[in-house]
Amino acid sequence: MGAVSRQTEEIMRVLGLFREFGTDDDRWEAMRRPEACDFVYGNPHDVAPQAYVDALVRAAQPTGKDHYAYTMDLPAAVRSVGDDLRRRFPVAFRNEDIHLTNGNFVGLAVALRTLVDPGDEVIFVSPPWFFYETLIVAAGATPVRVLADRDNDFDLDLGAIEAAISPRTRAIIVNSPHNPSGRIYTPEQLTALSAILEEGSARSGHRIFLLSDEAYNRIVFTPNTFTTPVAYYPHSFLLYTYAKTLLSPGSRLGYIAVGPEIDGADELRAALQIGQITLGWAYPVSILQHAIPDLNAMAPDIPVLQRRRDTLVSTLHEQGYEVVEPQGTFYVLVRSPIEDDRRFAEVLRAHDVFVLPGAMFEMPGWFRLSVTANDDMVERSLPGFAKAIAEVSA
Amino acid sequence: MGAVSRQTEEIMRVLGLFREFGTDDDRWEAMRRPEACDFVYGNPHDVAPQAYVDALVRAAQPTGKDHYAYTMDLPAAVRSVGDDLRRRFPVAFRNEDIHLTNGNFVGLAVALRTLVDPGDEVIFVSPPWFFYETLIVAAGATPVRVLADRDNDFDLDLGAIEAAISPRTRAIIVNSPHNPSGRIYTPEQLTALSAILEEGSARSGHRIFLLSDEAYNRIVFTPNTFTTPVAYYPHSFLLYTYAKTLLSPGSRLGYIAVGPEIDGADELRAALQIGQITLGWAYPVSILQHAIPDLNAMAPDIPVLQRRRDTLVSTLHEQGYEVVEPQGTFYVLVRSPIEDDRRFAEVLRAHDVFVLPGAMFEMPGWFRLSVTANDDMVERSLPGFAKAIAEVSA
Q1: Do A263 and A339 have their domain in common?
Q2: Do A264 and B115 touch (CB under 8 A)?
Q3: Exposure pattern of A156-187 as b/e (b: 16+ CB <10 Å)?
Q4: Rg of chain A, C-alpha, whole Å
Q5: Which of A27, B45, B51, B387 could, after both became Cys, cross-link B374 (CB 3.0–4.6 A)?
Q6: Cα angle vertex A99, ends A93, A103, to 5°?
Q7: DSSP secondary structure string, A291-359?
Q8: The dihedral of CA A358, A363, A365, A368: what is its sign?
């Protein structure tokens, strides 16, 4: 018996390449150099806006002796979230359906643990966010991978989802706008998905729940619009984080909004509250909860992100790359001109351009760019992209 | 199959009374009234000190574009913690032994998951902190309860610990200063404990680890001194939170410091890092990490807490209560004058005095007071305590 538990070893195995890549200190150092063009993660590459800093400074001022006390779901914060959700979506969320979390990472962990037991299966779409499989395994369930429909702009492959549903299916994770393809699922697709989940639930004699990871639901490029899957399938959890909208992933803040007509609503509400507590007091810190009304009023600068997207998509396309144009999210998917995406990432790195190899998100042969790279990085990177493709094509 | 997983139902069962008590909105409302004397939790009852607010305001100012980016263990924060630990304790902690966490709740969850698998046993001392058993169950292991030595000021019952060690024992949680008794374990006890754990490890052929929950290691009353168990048993994790020292439990901030000579140090370091990530990005938020050097320089106002302790201990003793004088922590343990501590808590509540019934922490027949109640509450409560004991003695 070694020092480390088998459950942790299993998680380290599932994390695989990401573990090695994401915790490589040398790479992080190299990416922090001023000459680096860093497209790797959805991280800020401009100093935080003054309005954001001001909101936190205001929220630091004590409103009373409870300001820094144990803070569960602060009523003023929950009301603000409820107002925001009801304004934006055709779903009659009640304030009691909202559970504040310290980010979607924990939100997913809490929702999964609330729903699944060993032997249960959870479906997710590949290419996925890095940690779905890990979180499903950590919750004790079995991940079931369904490929996105790569021939149709990474839409949901509804036939594949239907085929993946078994008597043990407990939940499906849907991520729209989709990281890394930027795809937003249409009302037609969501209607069809809902029918499949209803039929699957009826067949297996228990409810299949939908976990709607909406980290990017406010990062949507003109003229696209976003539709929440919760409006189509009431047995859903809407999982949101402010990390992307406000480009502040170091400020862990998000929420779970449970579909108001979900099966077992009362039972689930109590269980989620216990999950928030027992997963390690997964409530946002006081200062961020107090800032929520201000933060809900802030919007991402979509035109800036869209301009970067357009520059990268069109220039890389001209340079000979195959590029997927995203409808939303921070990301641009690009096919590696050589099969080995990790090797091509090293070729780009030699030109001080840092990208995320597709091997990290189950798409070997591709790589991902984040348009959170600042304007200067985008401009400086273009000759590097051109040289890199020329080098490997030579 | 209901909506909620069996693992969550089991956690709700283990939480038992605490779940009902801790999430009782009416009680929370009643405790918030200005006339309430609230001794229930280690929560602040004075407005946060200006120095604390100033530290957060300073930490909100961006130091660069990475200020609000994904923040793992910020090197400046880790160095500050390392300096602080090396100054205070005779243990040669290296900076790489330190893992920042968003509080001890998550710290314990991460440490437990790193170490235990189903079938493993984890020993804890009763009366315990509310969530030890829950966190052990949530990590998949089996809790093994050992009673504190109630005839000897709640010291460790070393014989009982030795008897509780089985071939499946993986870890023991030790909490000094001890919530709720306020006991600080002596060097002699810790030396003996270390020998027992060494022998147990040798007998079972695998290492038994010690999780040292030191939430209160800076809340120590004159003339007592605190000694860290890590100095006596190298195979230890020191778990710390700033919540108590700075009376700010809503600011989730803490760390795990691994004994530098622990068995499997390299393996454990990698596993803890993965645990921090996969338990839901269990790193403190950026603003709190940036504040750590300032926060490490702040000290709790021990004389104020000690004066409240002295007032409560001596006055309640004079009124006829049996009281345990704590050496540290926020807490004063008092025997309920009637067997039913929950009923007596209601008698006190009728006098606007709110206490934590012993049933919540495995000590039926007792109740706990927190000296974080402000001076005014302490003074106003004294006639209430007198009337309550008179009423039930009549």
Answers
A1: no
A2: no
A3: bbeeebbebbeeebbbbbbbbbbbbbbbbbee
A4: 21
A5: B45
A6: 120
A7: HHHHHHT----HHHHHHHHHHHHHHHHHTT--EEPPSBSSEEEEE-SSS-HHHHHHHHHTTTEE-EEGG
A8: negative
Domain with A161, as residue range(s), is: 63-296
How far is C-alpha A93 from the chain's CA centre?
Answer: 22
Question: Nearest-CA distance from B337 to chain A in Å?
Answer: 30
Residues A168 and A137 in one domain: yes
Q: Do A102 and B252 touch (CB under 8 A)?
A: yes
Q: Which of these three, B275, B296, B317, is where a domain ends?
A: B296
Chain B nearest C-alpha distance from A37 (Å): 14
**Confidence at residue B66, expressed as pLDDT on a 0 to 100 scale:** 93
pTM over the 0.90 mark: yes
- What is the residue-averaged pLDDT of chain B? 95
Nearest residue in B to A205, CA atom: B1
Cβ distance of B70 and A249 shorter than 8 Å: yes
- Per-residue pLDDT tens digits for A234-275: 999 999 999 999 999 999 999 999 999 999 999 999 999 988
pLDDT per residue as tens digits for the range A203-226:
999 999 999 999 999 999 999 999
In this predicted structure, the answer to whether residue B20 has a pLDDT above a threshold of 80 is no
Which residue does chain A place closest to B115, by CA atoms? A5
- Identity of the residue in A6, A11, A56 whose CB atom sits nearest the CB atom of B274: A11
Note whether B183 and B240 are same-domain residues: yes
Q: Looking at B272, B296, B320, which one is the last position of a domain?
A: B296
Let me know whether B77 and B217 are in one domain.
yes
Tokens of A29: 């150092």
CATH of the domain at B110: 3.40.640.10
Contacts of A274 in chain B (CB under 8 A): 8, 11-12, 15, 19
**Cis-peptide into A127, omega within 30 deg:** yes
What is d(CA A289, CA B99) in angstroms, rounded to the nearest whole number?
Answer: 25
Lowest-confidence range among B16-30, B59-73, B95-109?
B16-30
Say if B18 is an interface residue toward chain A (CB within 8 Å).
no
Whether residue A72 sits in one domain with residue A201: yes
A140-148: list long-range contacts, CB under 8 Å, 24+ apart. A140/A116, A140/B7, A140/B140, A141/A112, A141/A116, A141/A117, A141/A170, A142/A168, A144/A169, A145/A362, A148/A178, A148/A181, A148/A183
Question: Tell me, what's the pLDDT at A335?
Answer: 98
CB contact under 8 A, A8 and B282: no
Q: Which residue has the tokens 């504190």?
A: B148
Number of domains making up chain B: 2
Which of A43, A102, A134 has its CB closest to that of B278?
A: A134
The answer to whether residues B255 and B111 belong to one domain is: yes
